Amino acid sequence: MKLLAPLAQPRDPVWRWFVAALTAVTLLRLIGIGQWPLSGDEAYHWEWALRPQLGYYDHPPLHAWSMFLSTSVFGHSAWAIRLPNVLASTAMVLVLVGFARRLGRRSDLSPAASDRAAGWTGLIALLTPLHTAFAVYATGDAWVSLMWSWALWAGWIALEQGRARDWLHLGAALGCGVLAKFLILPLGMALALAVLVLPPYRRHLLRWQPWLLLPALAVVISPLVWWNWHHDWLTFAFNFAIRLREDGQWYQEIPLYLGSQMAAVTPLVWIFGVIAAARIVLDRTQPAGLRYCAIVILVPLLIFLKNAFTRRIGLHWPAIAYPALYVLLPLAWERGWCAPRWRRTTVIIPAVITGLALIVASIPPRWSVLPFMPPAGSAETAPAGETLGLPELAAIIRERRQRHQAESPTHAPVFLCSAQYGFLAFLRFALDAEPILLWDKPLPHGQQHRMWDDWGLHQGEDALFLTGKPSRLKSVATKLSDHFASVGEPEQTDIVVDGHLVNRIWIVPCRGFDGRKPEWE
To answer: Which of 369, 394, 395, 398 is nearest to 382 (CA)?
Structure first.
């Protein structure tokens, strides 16, 4: 109730803007998440929810658990799959608003100034393009952002008050963050650095209470550890070894890293936020709580800047730094840094970008995308990708499968297989979760299917190999011939909606599978 109390008493124009924006943006998100089919990555995450586990190859399980609960209640639709992200993102905004109010009042700001800063925090957190994308795109980033925000607040309370229960609370928050994504780990590094370099917090070095963080953390993440113990530590191996290949040149990757981060949260928010964090962390006269927030911003940004010297940094990885930035920047404004006109400009730019994006996303693709698609029979590449033609695609695959079985002398069952884990998952969503096996060489991402696929069950059966990329036909043709008695010619199939070409797939009919798991070099 304390967190939501200011929403009922909007005494400042900023609060009225925030409440209006929160209402409008949440409604647009709830409308927009049901308009567009899932992407391949979203469908791959949805597949995890079909098989709830304590861990997965690519990531910890929290996001999958949330989708499992949502789809159990609302059914398997794009709206239900994305709903947990909308809820998590909205909760993140409210947590940051509450933290900004508390931190402002403990940092010598008046109640009115603290409330105003919290309103600016809510607007920025709600309207930046990156976290808007997290709210409507079904991956685990919305959940790790929420858990980071919770742990950010819990860490400040533990550092300020130092009670045993505060450190237990922080351990639980960090543990939930680990269950969301391992990207929570830089927050632990920032907390340790804050204890070492901020004089008011050094007292914790000689106290026993901070050690309570570890058992609380261990209890929360124990399901994930137990699963990995029985599965060769796959989640840890993927995130800390397999995916961290050094394949970039610093003169390309560093400009790309800095430019993409500015674009993700808009240039003014990023530049003003980073400058404010640097100034505050170097100013020993600033309150310890503000300097703590500055450290939490700078540590992950510097870690990924260092990594950008040797590899490409994912656009969403450094996003963990921004909840603290959303809190610190308005508090710096209220302490006299930056003219008021710049505050409005800083918020208006992401508001316009996000507002337009959400309005467009709320329009069904049949109205917004279909009119621009090439006509049926066109030789052009269908640009709609996975946004249109889902029922038509499912109907074509089912009809071709029935025909393939009817043409078989033995009428053997026909299973489906595909390269590209995202395309495979998209097809499964189109076909109401019908099993499809992954027929492709191992790649860094998307290898959860290899833990599920049981090739021996399909010995003697026929198959249809499906792909959305003709380039994959050559790479798998030899392998198909190694495991099937006969392999037919690829059949190009166009997906047409209202006379427009919206998608194109290739189908390879195969007969007589030998039951052996494909082995790739």
So the answer is: 369
